[in-house]
Write a structure and sequence with these properties.
The chain is mostly helical. The protein has helices at residues 8-18, 20-29, 42-52, 57-68, 80-85, 88-93, 98-112, 119-124, 127-134, 142-151, 164-173, 182-188, 196-212.
């Protein structure tokens, strides 16, 4: 399991002190249990993210597995260099759409050219620097870059304001009549700095809990 770049206990304590309303949400949802997904490389993580876009997890996992079956050692063998030499037909045979093929090709080319940072380099970069580099890839938007920061690198202060589920969670948790605009959510989240990742996770839990009730 990948490790966070911050102390989760300190983050929760900070949020409790900074926002009494969020403290009640924390109490309702228990200990911070967000799990990070280990990344073999930035390229591999983004390739998987591209495949998963707009698909159910089950369908995406099947397609990603088919794609990785073309490489030695399966997912562990997925590299930019190997993807570049794989024919379009073989990539498409895994169930990859033409737009996603274009994105994967661009990601691979940029990775080989050094435009996509290595994991070691990414860990030394700021969140803004990483987002700027990643959104240059065709098919990778700000949301995908933010998910990489949160769930792959474990960065502490990411607030994905364009995420519909987070906006819905905020409205539900704080009894708002309408979804907040991205700008309104950005403003509301200022009190959660520098641990907006943790605040986001707790807000998402309110949706999971509501769905289970």
């Amino acid at each position: 399991m990948a490790a966070f770049s911050f102390d989760p206990a300190a983050a929760v304590a900070h949020l409790r002190a900074a926002d009494p309303a969020l403290a009640r949400i924390i109490d309702d949802n228990g200990p911070f249990a967000m799990e990070l997904k280990k990344a073999r490389s930035v390229f591999a993580a983004l390739a998987e993210a591209i495949v998963y876009q707009q698909l159910s997890n089950k369908a995406a996992a099947t397609i990603f597995g088919r794609l990785c079956s073309h490489f030695p050692r399966g997912p562990a063998g997925l590299t930019a260099e190997r993807l570049l030499v794989l024919s379009d037909a073989r990539i498409r045979s895994a169930g990859i759409s033409r737009p996603k093929l274009k994105s994967l090709r661009d990601l691979a080319r940029r990775s080989v050219a050094g435009e996509v940072p290595t994991l070691a380099a990414a860990r030394r970069m700021t969140d803004a620097e990483i987002v700027e580099r990643l959104i240059a890839v065709h098919g990778i938007g700000r949301w995908s870059a933010e998910m990489f920061l949160m769930f792959r690198l474990g960065r502490p202060d990411v607030l994905p304001i364009d995420d519909y589920s987070l906006r819905k969670a905020y409205a539900t948790a704080f009894a708002k009549r309408a979804l907040p605009s991205p700008a309104a959510l950005e403003k509301a989240g200022q009190k959660w700095r520098p641990y907006r990742t943790v605040a986001s996770w707790y807000l998402w839990q309110t949706l999971d809990k509501a769905g289970a009730d």
